[in-house]
Hints:
YbaB/EbfC family nucleoid-associated protein, Ybab, Chain: A, DNA binding, 3 strands, disordered N terminus
Amino acid sequence: MAHTRRRRYQACRVIQAPTGGLVDYLDDWNAEQRELAIKWRRKNADLRTALAAIEVRTTSPNGEIGVTVDGQGNVTNVRLTPQGLRVGDARLSQVMLETIQRAQGEARRKADEAARPYTSDPDAVTAKKALHDLLGNPPADE
């Protein structure tokens, strides 16, 4: 148990206790935690805004169909051209699926790119590992 507890708190930054005593130390620690919470809320809002702005439009190689997906890969629009109506059901289904998958892949890449500054932040990585240690779950990327 002591080893687990030690691992949990290694991720936390330690503030040196000021000479004013325990109350001053706790006041300083609380102030720092408030500042960190504000910083994380701002980063979270920025990331949500960036992800919400992602929109990918893709057209099939021969122009039969066009699709639009959002930052989560959800299809938000499908445009079928007259050319698409002439290719037949089986071919149209295949082209539609391939085009949607390409658009979703591009949306995923854009979302990863938008999140990279936040997910590669050393403080975020440390906090994620501490949270997973605390909850007893291994991080998803290990």
